[in-house]
Amino acid sequence: MLAEVLIFVPSIARYRADFLLTRLKQAQIAALTQLATEDMIMPELEAELLANAEVYNVVLRRNEVRQLVLSSPVPGEIHATYDLRVAGPWELIRDAFALMMDPQNRIVRVIGYPVQDAGTLIEVTMETRPLRLAMLDYGLRILFLSALISVVTAFLLFIAVQRLLVLPIRRVVHHMQTYAEAPEDARRVIEPNADVEELRRAEEALKSMQTQLTAALRQKERLAQLGGAVAKISHDLRNILTTAQLFADRLEGSADPAVARSAPKLINSISRAVSLCEATLAFGKAEEPPPQLRRLNLAQLAGEVAEGEGLGTETQITCLIDIPPGLTIRADGEQLHRVLSNLMRNARQAIEATGQPGTIELSAGEDEGEWWIRVGDTGPGLPPKAREHLFSAFQGGARKGGTGLGLAIAAELVRGHGGRLELARSDAEGTEFTIHLPKETTESFA
C-alpha cells in the first residue's frame, strides 16, 4: 500500500502539470499564428485556433505589454487561477486531487512561462472536464500497472521466501523428526548448508546439540551395559562370598589361638564385601530401600566406622573424632554407617596414595534446623576432573581404578534421609565433605 501511494500520488500531480503545460504550448502556437499576420484574422479562423488549443482565450505579455491575442465568449465565471510558475510539489498534489474529487465542469485560468522565450507570461482560460477525464483515465492505468507490479513483486517475494526461509526451515524440521526416530544414529545429524546466516547459525547449533546428544546416548548405553555386567558380577560374587562366610564362621571355633583371633576380622571383611555386592545390585536396580529411622549415638557409630576401616593407633593415619558423647540423631544406622564408611575409606586411600602420614577428622554438631557431620582429611585434594561428576556413578572416581560408585551411593542415601551431601572444600591442604540431615524432615519419618 505504501508503494502504491508513493507511485500514484506524485504521478497524478505530474500528469496534471504536464497536461496544463501542453495546453499553454498549444495556446502559444495559436497566438503566434495570430501575431504572424498583420491584419485581423477572420472570426472563423480564430475560433478554430482556440478549439484546436482547447482554450477560450489567450493572453501574452511581451515587452511589458499584456495583450489579449485570441478570445472567445467564456461560458461562466472563472472558478480558480493556477500559476504554474510558482507551484510547488505539495500545491500540485493538492490541486490535482481537488480536481479529481470535483465532478463539476469549472472554468479556470492557467498562467505559465511561454516556450522559446516568446514572452514573459502566457495566460489561458479553459474547462476542467477534459483535464479531469484524462486524469481519471491515467489514474486507472497507473493503478492497474501498480497492482500488476505489486502482484509480480509479491510472487517473486513468495518464491524468495519459499527458497530462502520456508524450504530451509522445512529441512530443519525434517532433520529433527528424522533424528528423533533414531538419535543414536550419527548419520542423521544435520549438516548446515543454509544460505541465510541466521538459519545457518540455527543449523550449526542444532548440529552441535545433536552431536552432543548422540555421544551422551552412546555413553549412557555403554554405562547401562557396564552396569548390567557389574550387577551380574556382583550377584555371582555375593554368592561366592556367602559361601566363604559360612566357612569363615567355622574358623571361630578353631583351637589355634592365631586363627581364632583372625577369624572375626576375616568374617567382618567378608560381611562388608557381601554388603558392597548387595549395594551394587540395589543401585543398579535404583531400588535403595527407604531409611528406617531411629535414635542412635553418633560418636559410637563413628568409632565403629573408624575401627571397621582399620584406623587404629598402629597406622600412620590418625583418626580424630570430635563428636560430643551425648549427641544423638535420628537416622538409619546401617545406611549412615555406609555413608561414613565410604567417606572415610576415600579419605584413607587418598592419604595412603601420598605415602605420607595424614589425619582424618570426623566432627559433628547441630543447630535448630539440622544435624551436620563433617569428614575431612589432609590428603592431596580432588583433581578438577573428578569434581565435575563427583556424585555420578561410574564417572566421579577420584583415584585411579575407582568407579565413583561409593560417593554416588552415599549421596543417594543422604538424600533418602531428606538431607544432602556436599563437597565443602578440596585443595592442596585436603578435602572436606559435609552431611546435612534436617531435623524436621527426619522427624516426620517417625
Automatic annotation (TrEMBL):
Membrane spanning residue stretches: 138-161
EC numbers, comma separated: 2.7.13.3
Keyword Flavoprotein: no
Class in the EC hierarchy, top level: transferase
GO molecular function annotation: kinase activity
Pfam families, alphabetized: HATPase_c, HisKA
Domain Histidine kinase: 232-441
Catalytically driven reaction(s): ATP + protein L-histidine = ADP + protein N-phospho-L-histidine
Keyword hit for Protein biosynthesis: no
Coiled coil: 199-226
UniProt entry keywords in alphabetical sequence: ATP-binding, Coiled coil, Kinase, Membrane, Nucleotide-binding, Phosphoprotein, Transferase, Transmembrane, Transmembrane helix, Two-component regulatory system
Gene3D superfamilies registered for this protein in UniProt: 1.10.287.130, 6.10.340.10, Histidine kinase-like ATPase, C-terminal domain
SUPFAM superfamilies named in the record: ATPase domain of HSP90 chaperone/DNA topoisomerase II/histidine kinase, Homodimeric domain of signal transducing histidine kinase
Protein name: histidine kinase
